[in-house]
Write a structure and sequence with these properties.
The protein is built from ten helices and 16 strands. It has helices at about 35, 45, 65-75, 95-105, 130-145, 225-235, 260-270, 295-300, 310-325, 330-335, and strands at about 5-10, 20, 25-30, 50-55, 85-90, 110-115, 150-155, 155-160, 165, 175, 185, 190-195, 215-220, 240-245, 275-280, 305. It is elongated, with a radius of gyration of 21 Å.
């Protein structure tokens, strides 16, 4: 029988690690692995499981500093374990998955699985047990199969972390990958990875880039929105990048007082700040070959098309690029469209 894989569970909060405190008759975060193992006694049959609690913060409050902290922690523990599982609240789980994919890079030699749940372990009919057990199984199977990437396990799906978004506040299938196939599935016959799952490359060294520059403005465009209000944020000098989530494939208003074309041109040419146009719709694609005139005019004014990056990844990737010191608009343009870790499709950044 093959030796069990060593899996480190990094507790970073989430409903999935909530249990009932019998004394207080309240649902509270578990204090350690032992409390969780009482609910999931068979976990160690699948892998040699250890757990470190780093945070019990509500995921709404998890941000760039947390992404850095987790990435550094994985780096420090990288050689001690075969795989990593991160528990996380669902609100920002896709952000953390996207950020870790960039921070850990393609040289990571271990799989990293993020999971959460809609209901806590102590509630009858919960999804926490299913997701927790399957995250451990997926991590162990990925390690045995040489699959080394950041992924999300939720319900019966395995998704590439940097391609995932939250699609429901209540469904047990709360996450999806609208513009990229799921990289695996979980069935009664086991864990099944697709050919799209990324295998490790021993020729690429494991080097991390764990920092993020949060000073960006991400705006969901609505009819009648005033570009002048957004320009006030740009004029403050604190903003280092702008993302316009468009009505279509990168299209923005182009007529009269609500036209964003002068704003884009001034922001890019005068303030030397990049403007990215993306789409707010699941599975959408903003790319330069688009036939939408309003999108073409935005690109001609200086906007960068975001391709099929998710709205989450567009924001995270811009913060990550800015933290690398690429503040020149042309440098940022090239890096946004570059496929770093499988986050964007080739057609979306064709020259």
């Amino acid at each position: 029988m093959p030796e069990k894989k060593k899996v480190l569970v990094i507790g970073y909060g989430g409903t999935i690690v909530m249990i009932v405190d019998e004394a207080r008759k309240a649902i509270v975060p578990a204090k350690n692995l032992e409390e969780i193992m009482k609910k999931l006694p068979t976990l160690n049959e699948v892998a040699d499981v250890s757990m470190d609690f780093l945070s019990n913060e509500d995921s709404t409050n998890v941000g760039p500093n947390d992404w850095t902290r987790i990435a550094l922690y994985i780096r420090d523990k990288h050689d001690e374990y075969d795989a990593f599982v991160i528990t996380h609240g669902t609100n920002t789980l896709a952000y953390t998955a996207s950020a870790l994919t960039l921070a850990l890079g393609t040289g990571i030699k271990k799989p990293v699985v993020l999971t959460g749940s809609q209901l806590p372990l102590s509630v009858y009919g919960n999804d926490a047990r299913f997701n927790f057990e399957n995250a451990i199984k997926t991590a162990a199977k990925a390690s045995a199969s040489g699959i080394n990437e950041v992924m999300i396990v939720f319900s019966d799906t395995i998704l590439r972390g940097c391609r995932s978004v939250k699609v429901s506040e209540s469904s047990f299938r709360a996450f999806a990958s609208p513009a990229f196939p799921q990289i695996g599935s979980i069935t009664s016959t086991g864990i099944h990875f697709s050919p799209d799952a990324r295998h490790g490359d021993d020729n690429i060294p494991f080097e991390i880039s764990p920092h993020f520059h949060p000073n960006i403005v991400s705006l969901d465009l609505t009819p009648g929105q005033s570009p002048a209000l957004v320009e006030e944020l740009v004029k403050s000098g604190k903003c280092k990048g702008v993302i316009l989530k468009s009505h279509g494939a990168g299209s923005v208003p182009t007529i009269g007082e609500y036209s964003f074309l002068p704003f884009i041109e001034k922001t890019v040419r005068h303030y030397k700040i990049p403007v990215i146009v993306s789409t707010k719709f699941l599975g959408g694609n903003a790319y330069k070959e688009v036939n939408d005139e309003c999108a073409v005019l935005a690109i001609q004014a200086g906007a960068i098309p975001g391709g099929d990056l998710t709205d989450v990844m567009t924001e995270v990737k811009l913060m990550w690029i800015l933290a690398q010191g690429a503040f020149d608009e042309q440098q940022i343009r090239g890096r946004i469209l570059d496929n770093v870790v499988g986050e964007i499709s080739p057609i979306a950044h064709s020259k």
